[in-house]
């Protein structure tokens, strides 16, 4: 069984940047050797609204759907989706001052990037 190097970032919802509070809402996994770039996400309305009752949770979901489009390389991801897979991951891991922000890049090895995404999503978001 071959072991493949991968990188991942946790996506955080930061409803109010001034308070520096966040909730993990997704994980992006990139494995160059497997040509794999996917996001898994889960939005808990109640927990997000505890941070900011005025938060537009539908806007958070729209932002995560945009990330899905970037990963898939389809129209949902706008211009960023048209780039090679490594550049798309670079776009997603770049710091942003929006409601959805990536955390630091982490790495590891796995035999199955999709299974690793499910594992990380369960541990870090779910």
Detail the topology: elements first, then pairings.
Layout: E1 4-13, E2 23-31, E3 36-41, H1 45-51, H2 57-72, H3 85-93, E4 100-102, E5 106-110, H4 113-124
Antiparallel strand pairs: 1-2, 1-4, 1-5, 2-3
InterPro entries: DUF3037
Protein name: DUF3037 domain-containing protein
Organism: Nocardioides oceani
Q: Structural class, from helix and strand content?
A: alpha+beta
Apparent shape: globular
Low-pLDDT regions: none
What is the terminal separation in angstroms?
A: 28 Å
Which value, in Å, is the CA radius of gyration?
14 Å
Number of domains: 1
Largest sheet, strands/sense/barrel: 5 strands, antiparallel
Q: Kindly estimate the percentage of residues that lie in beta strands according to DSSP.
A: 25-35%
Mean pLDDT: 95
What are the main properties of this structure?
4 helices; 126 residues; DUF3037 domain-containing protein; DUF3037; 5 strands
